[in-house]
Fold:
Amino acid sequence: MKLKDITAKTDQELETLIKTEREALAKAVIDSRTKEIKNVKLLAAHKKTIARALTIAHERNIAKEEAAE
Structure:
């Protein structure tokens, strides 16, 4: 998922995205260990999407805290 798409999401949608991506990553890891996955690059894609979403969520939390001060 592109960074533009992630930043356009609301906080609630971001949490949902993180949750679904973590579930998809867990399934992909199991599939890769049992040799059922054909595209091993999916693992890295899920990890990158999770990292991007967590970064955006963290930046938003910092901005909210600074605005409250």
Q: What stands out?
A: The mean pLDDT is 93. The longest helix spans residues 41-68. Residues 3-68 form a domain with the Helix Hairpins fold (CATH 1.10.287). The CA atoms of residues 1 and 48 lie 9 Å apart.
